[in-house]
# Entry
Amino acid sequence: ELLSSDVGWVSLGMSPVVTARTRIDLSEELRSALRDGTPLTSDGTYFLDHAAEAQAAMAIGVAYARQVAGPPLLSDAGDLADSPVRAFANDPGNGWRLYAGAGVKYLVGIAYFETSGKLEVIPAEPLLDPADPTDVILHTTVRSAVPGSPGTVGQGVAFDLGFAALHGQAWEIGLGASDLAGSIGWRTDVEEVTLDQTTGELVSRTVAEGERYRSHLTPAITLNLARHWGARTTLATDLRHGIEGTSWHAGGETHVGRYALRGGAILDPAGRLQGTGGGGVRLGRVGFDASLASTSANLAEERALMLGLSLAIY
# Structure
């Protein structure tokens, strides 16, 4: 969040909302040519279907959350605490406590972009015949609302809902959903882009200006479970469903002095098992962390490693 403030059980905040998703489908012949170097043949089918959407907005929200079941949390002064986090830290009891919360966000759209289309390669007969060159056919539709264009700022709403159960300071169970029924209305321009077969240049044609369009946010739903052993060791797992599909995560973290060790596993939306590992060190008010994670989110769908680095100031 860029800005946030808590007043009792009410939270006010402002935060950016940025979403992006892409889809690329290749024919088996084209995938084999790109991945394995299989020669193109004049009777092969080589095409690529693509779609992408990206949007950015600013969310201004208000949320209300409080304890709804279990023994009351008492502050050091003996009164009901105005913050569940602060009260929980002051109460080492082992009873279950249930919390519920809901929020609404007003979305101010900043920019929107969407494209979809098809690219097709038609090899010559015979191949590399200068009198009959290979044809490339491209047809793409682009819808956009960009900053600075009159009337393109979008508006919309979204809702959040969450529940959490705490057992002493050892167990946490949570279920949350964000961006429920979220959508943003825009005024968009629409263009069609094609490839000129004679000149080889891209040709753009405007087919609509200021057309009303409503984009939708994909709700993110998370179920999580965590077990703490004091402030040094934590094991956690969660199941998530969102814009990229359904995934499962599990991992652990332990602190030894100024050092931290972490490791985990991920079952990605495509059903492939990935691994992560890393560590960090805290030097006074500065912390350094590094991690490695495997991924198969690439065009060839082959496993690769990603390196992550972070710097924290406490």
User: Anything to note?
Assistant: DSSP finds two helices and 15 strands in the chain.
